[in-house]
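Hi everyone,

Forwarding the result from last night's run.
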Amino acid sequence: MRLIVAPRTAPKPHTNCSPRRRHAAAIETDRRENGSSRSTLRPAMKLATWNVNSLGIRLPHLLAWLAETQPDAVVLQETKLVDEKFPHAELKEAGWHVEFFGQKTYNGVALVSKQPATAIVRNIPGHADEQARVIAGTIGDVRIVGGYFPNGQAPGSEKFAYKMAWLDALKAWLATELAAHPKLVLMGDFNIAPEDRDVHDPVLWAGQIHCTDEERTHFRGLCGLGLHDAFRLLEQPPKLWSWWDYRNLAFRKNQGLRIDHILVSEPLRAGVRACTIDKAQRKLERPSDHAPVIVEIELPAA
């Protein structure tokens, strides 16, 4: 990713595809209907997304993080490895199941989990694409979709047109996935900052890649399918980002973007109890420029 300086224009008003007050009301309704014991809820499921920006370099960080965090599943982006070089043996030795889909030098996604995932899908069915960007699998009765959304380079470019077409295809496919799997979680590096509050300097980034009206409209379109931004379902401190440029001391200055997201379907919304960004991983030696995003969901009874 590259920091682009843009002409200063007035920031756009905030939008929110899933207001916190609705989430609070849903929790209160659940408590009234089911009682404070939450007997209709199963133990919390911990899910995460992490753009590791080259798994070959970041594997020690990932193994240590998995051992400490113990997610039920994590989706990875930018593994940057062909399948023959994916560290399957190392992850298996550490006790993890893994499905992966890679290519040389760029892109690449994976699904790492405690229990084996089933019904694996690689890339968007029916959408011709040579880039390894999507992996999906089912764990229990929860459908997990991991995606590395296209960067888009710049508005008006061929890569931006590719991003728009890819997002159209993703939305159409997710509509069918939601019909088949009501309990669904979409996670990944979206390369979209949904609102001005997800950008360290909204004026600087106005109209630039990750912050265009077109990209934000697509994000709202995904929410329109019945998905909810788990991070925004809860009260959050200001100025929390998931990506910081390696250059210009961006991390030290906390100049970042929130572009890594976890969207949960309506049946899972009331169960969201925490959604955090693990900023500590960005402080390591040779870190990824992204931090993991983690959600904890108390699952409704099957």
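The chain is about 25% helix and 25% strand.

Cheers,
N.
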